[in-house]
Amino acid sequence: MKINSLAVGVAAIAATVCACQSQQQMVNQMQADAVHVAQRRGAFELNCPQAAATVLSNEMVQTPTPAFGFAPPQRAEYTVGVSGCGQRATYLVVCAEGGTGCIAAGAQNVTSANPK
To answer: Measured on CA atoms in the order 98, 108, 63, 54, is the torsion positive or negative?
Structure first.
């Protein structure tokens, strides 16, 4: 009986480790699309076609399953900094697992601006 309990424990730990790796892989796979979306929005809002984007943070967000059994898709969230033409801004970019793309959600967060 102890052997079966040990095997179940090892399997549970292995499943947890694999789930974490697959979530990080999903975040990594969607990151290029997130950067592209933030760069395009930043270039438009900063009126700076050469603006460059950098990922400041990322994470996989899991929404709790509601009582009705419908589970919304997991999503990766990125904080992306965009800079160019003497200006900088940050954007929250959200990419749904299995979705068709990413969106730069919310308002522009200007962290500094230099008058031209």
So the answer is: positive
Note whether 59 and 76 are within 8 A (CB).
yes
31-86 per-position pLDDT tens digit: 999 999 999 999 999 999 999 999 999 998 876 666 677 767 788 999 999 999 99
Give the 3-state DSSP-derived string for the chain, with helices as H, strands as E and coil as C: CHHHHHHHHHHHHHHHHHHHHHHHHHHHHHHHHHHHHHHHHHHHHCCCCCCEEEEEEEEEECCCCCCCCCCCCCEEEEEEEEEECCEEEEEEEEEECCCCCEEEEEEEEEEEECCC
Relative to beta strand 52-61, strand 75-84 is antiparallel
Contact 108, 40 (CB under 8 A): no
| Tokens at 44, concatenated | 């438009």
